[in-house]
Design brief:
alpha/beta; six-stranded antiparallel sheet; six-stranded mixed sheet; 15 strands
Length: about 375
């Protein structure tokens, strides 16, 4: 579902704002520190339950206010009534989540119907260099396509936590730990099976778009489950053999929590072999492949947030990335922040009608709709 309307209250420097977003494209522009990234942050919070800018959600509440509120109206792809969702967080940490004006257990329930992804000036390099972020990126797709994945993943993490506690108290491998390891291995294999099935489709899409967008360097993706799955030994056997190492380190060294998506170009890690510009293009290719796979499989439009679009991009690269994003017109709702509105001149070939485009200017936390009939259907 795409965001049709957004209401913010006491969110960072935005005291109150009401926005009607474009179905295909929304631009929020203004000076640094004006509040444009806060709009993206609020949408990200709805889709993930966390911020991409701060580990403390309390910092998102405006100074001297006791709560923040986010309200949104989601529009179904095939028409019908708007779908209201809400998020409210108080200074004391209490959180209320509502869907269709009924209380929901957590923001995860919003995330399932509101798939959202984000690109920031640092995201692409972090993805190429930090395994945890690659896992998070990849699992976003599995979460939306495989309906049981979140249940299996939470179940595995409970077993992982329990095993970590056992490692602190047991210096020898015994029958009690063996019983838990059997459950651990069974749960791990279920998680890995769902990831593996999604990877097969994702890898094929990445290959197609690498060719389409002109990244001519050979790029390979390798699925690493988190343990030595090429050996004849099962994960259970490896847990038993690796017990002393796990005991010394205080954590489990094998399992799907160690999963990674390895990206190489000509046999070397892409972070060591591609230029920064090539890395950024590769990241956009991965994002396009991921979004189209999720959108087609779920029949939902994905909201893609791009913060500070022109950062580190010269004019030719801006045009290249805009051409890449054009591929996503039928699959996404783009919400982009920039210092100015120069990107509008690059969108003429998208052939968007005016009611699918919205432009806002923000200054000192105040948002003004400055949409003009610039983009015409040809």
């Amino acid at each position: 579902m795409a965001i049709k309307k957004l209401y913010l209250q006491n969110f960072r420097n935005i005291e109150e704002a009401y926005l009607e977003l474009g179905k295909n494209f929304t631009l929020v522009h203004g000076d640094n520190g004006s509040g444009k990234s806060s709009v993206l942050e609020s949408l990200y919070l709805l889709g993930f339950g966390r911020s991409f800018r701060s580990s403390s959600l309390g910092k998102l509440i405006q100074f001297e206010k006791d709560h923040l509120s986010i309200g949104a109206s989601l529009a179904a792809e095939q028409g019908g009534l708007d779908f209201p969702v809400g998020y409210r967080r108080q200074k004391n940490g209490n959180t209320d989540v509502t869907i269709s004006r009924k209380k929901a257990p957590s923001v995860t329930h919003i995330a399932k119907i509101f798939p959202v992804q984000i690109l920031t000036p640092d995201t692409f390099y972090q993805l190429m260099t930090v395994p945890k972020l690659r896992r998070r990126f990849f699992d976003w797709g599995v979460f939306h396509v495989k309906h049981d994945f979140v249940h299996e993943w939470k179940g595995f993490n409970r077993l992982l936590s329990h095993r970590s506690q056992l490692l602190k108290s047991q210096s020898q491998y015994d029958k009690y730990l063996s019983v838990w390891d059997k459950q651990f291995a069974t749960s791990a294999e279920k998680v890995t099976q769902q990831r593996s099935e999604y990877f097969a489709a994702f890898e094929k899409r990445v290959g197609d778009y690498l060719q389409r967008f002109g990244l001519h360097q050979e790029v390979t993706l390798t699925f690493r489950s988190g343990w030595s799955d090429t050996d004849k030994e099962s994960l259970l056997s490896q847990l038993q053999e690796n017990f002393e190492t796990d005991y010394r380190q205080g954590f489990s060294g094998k399992g799907p929590h160690r999963f990674d998506l390895i990206l190489k170009s000509n046999g070397k890690l892409v972070a060591d072999s591609l230029s920064r510009g090539q890395l950024k293009l590769l990241f956009y290719v991965l994002m396009v492949a991921q979004i189209i796979e999720v959108s087609e499989r779920t029949q939902q439009r994905v909201t893609l947030l791009i913060d500070d679009f022109t950062a580190e991009l010269d004019q030719s690269n801006q045009e290249l990335i805009v051409n890449v994003l054009k591929t996503l017109v039928d699959y996404t709702q783009l919400v982009i922040t920039m210092l100015d509105d120069s990107i509008l001149s690059l969108l003429n070939e998208w052939k968007l009608v005016d009611d699918k485009v919205k432009v806002f200017h923000v200054k000192h936390g105040k948002l003004t709709d400055v949409t003009q009939p610039i983009i015409k259907e040809r």
